[in-house]
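Record type: ASSEMBLY
Status: queued
Input:
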Amino acid sequence: MRYDLVLRVAAKLLIPFILLFALYVQFHGDFGPGGGFQAGVILAAAVIFYALIYGLSAARKVVPEPLVESMMALGVLIYAGVGVAGLLLGGNYLDYFVLDADSVHGQHRGIFWVEVGVATTVSGVMLKIFYMFADRGKVDDES
Amino acid sequence: MAVTVWVIVRNRNLFAVVILAGIYSFLMATVLVAMDAVDVAMTEASVGAGISTVLFLGALYLCKSEEARPLHQPWLPLVVSVAVGAVLVYGTLGLPEFSDPAAPIHTHVVPRYLNDIKREVDVPNVVTAVLASYRGYDTLGETTVVFTAGAGVVALLRRRRKDREP
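Status: finished
Output:
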């Protein structure tokens, strides 16, 4: 599949739109359907698509494995960090009302960062699982 | 959907089964859209039809593409699954009608969410507001579960690769 011209060009055309759609789902999740989980999966799907067409090593160059692994942990830390930020500002854990002078804005801010955390972890985990699976096939081939 | 399931059960070519499972997920997503659960439908379409199909194909690459003949007739699992299914169907008989406004779920916390969300959170998508704000702890737990699952896969598959190298 790596040298198929039609697939390569089609993928090049599609991937920016998939990434854009992931960002739309992420940031428009407050208004329409969607949110961090779906956005994370779509983001991971874009990279997996790239890996399917251009090969795993090319995808590893774009999204290196250490980055993926740190994304897995970083998302949970962002989410938990929002809770700690609420504590430091004098509220309860995961209490968003204190994150801004206006409590409704504080809610918006809290939801935004929480969704960022969810998307980061989900896309990291999905990509890591895909990398591990695809990698095992390769190891089997070489041995 | 029933046709898809029947073909999946009868078919011995695993590649066809994987693709049919993806089709089943898309059908399920349309059912969820018809039931006004757009967020869940989106997740079903992207995870069920997208990522898991790719992962299944990756697993298929590692093994034979024809399903092996079972060694014995699977009568006991069949009886167990039919019994569990019958119990679940019996359970749904006790549920209130679909979209019945007097159902217990609509009289407990739902009015509180729907009435106060405009004032407290002001996010048009109630699902997002409930998940991220009112049920923040649950979503934190879910994110941690996803992280733990990923860490578990990493731990399992990576040890295997190290065993192979020396």
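Annotation: The mean pLDDT of chain B is 80.
Annotation: Residues 18 and 57 of chain B are 7 Å apart (CA to CA).
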